[in-house]
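agent> Task received from the user: take the single chain below, predict its 3D structure, and emit structure tokens. No templates, no multimer pairing.
agent> Plan: (1) validate residues, (2) run structure prediction, (3) serialize to tokens, (4) report one or two observations.
agent> Step 1 OK, no nonstandard residues flagged.
tool_call: predict_structure(input=
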Amino acid sequence: MAEPMLLSSGNPFNTVPEDIWEEIFSHMTIREILEVRTVCRAFYKATRLRQVWFRAIQRDIVGENLSICRQREPLRDLPTEELESLARKTMRLAKNMAAHNPRPTSWVSVRDQLQGPSNVQPSGAEIYITQILLLNGIGGSKWLLCMSAGYKISVWEILADPVSCVPAGRLDNPSPILDVQLNNDPEAESNLAITMQDKGRMQSYRAGIMKLSPLETGKIPAFITLETLERPPGSLIYFKGDLIFFFRRRTRNITVINWRTRAEAIFHMPECEEWPASRAFEIHAGKMGFVTMDHIYVFDFPSDEATLFGSSAPRLPIAVHPLKAAGAPMKVEKATIVPYPPAWQLVVPSPDYGMSVILRRKVSATAHEAFHYIISWNDPVQSDSTTPAPQSDVQIKSFRKAVIGGHYCADVKYARSGRGIVLWQAKRGGKLQEGLSAFDPRRRHHLTGEVVWETEMPWRPFAGIDLPGNVVLSACTAFDTDDGEGRIVVGSSDGRITILDFA
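)
tool_result: status=success, residues=503
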């Protein structure tokens, strides 16, 4: 039996062993642990046990599919004080983002400019921000990749408490950069893939597989090209491990290439009335989900490369769902798709695996509609055949929809926790206004704080983010969000970068 906790005499709780306290408090939520610790010294000492916080994080944060805020090391290596700090930050972030009007705790605004002679001023075209991506960093920081006017990628280091941003490096390219994708495998050697136009050759393109190196404290990251693919077979849409995914509208093909071995596999979409346009893409548990303007496609995706590249015949979808409203194709303008784990089983009846899709279409000049679709399957069985299985277990169902009013959803990001961010634009009084809204298709019980899916309730997920008075969003051209870090970064056409911190 474990040793009893030694406190002052006269209190019956003093003789209770530590393992009993751990068992009792392991059934409490993080909120309950913080509340009961004020009852007496014995309870306070019990809430200082490491296993109490470790179990609370596993249940209330990891079990709810929330990203642990600002985690830098494995949980098993962290002391009690850091576990408690992570739990507090994560729950504070979750509470802030679930508020009626989430508000950043700190913010910073900087301007991205070309580094050159002081007598040379960059033109507007040179600092026009076209894409923003957040990349895992080191020592409590994050890397921010900022693409400007299609010709350069600048690297910024984001520091926390309060948030700040300093330039850390850059990549200049003599020809336009077309697409940039971060590697979805954090353990992979390469960090990002880019496609670019060859200088002076309008119809000639290439793809570069690159990494930021060295990622060491105090050193400026440098871009190192690991490999170059000449004439890639389409637009770059996804990057994971050694696999790069390209999509070509004219052929309706998704081509997967291993950049090390140059092996190729093709996935084909036969059911299209016109050339499809890519809207969202994801791979999860042996399935590949692809959203176009008017369809959702699901393919079997083999986990082993021997099967994936074993045949040259195109693979066909195992499930196709046309996106229609009032009998006509939706013409989806924006979409985002993420996997959901078994912990989300309240969404649909007993799925083992699935993906969640948020998409938006324009209804009129003054209104848009948001739709939530669920892709689910009960057995991630992969087929070696290049033809669809006669009976597919994949189900694609419309979960709910909402009218977004007069807001134009310029862009949308959706995290695996279920939280998402919308960048919107709207004309009011003849002027264009821009802002951010948070959404979460779940709600929390007003007493217990437990997450419940709104299966029978009207979906009202959009909550306007309350920006500080001196933060004005205008001419926004790109944004990204990091759910675990609690940050939103917005870029504009004049090179301005605004970072909002909610943790």
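agent> Step 4: summary for the user.
The longest strand covers residues 353-364.
agent> Done.
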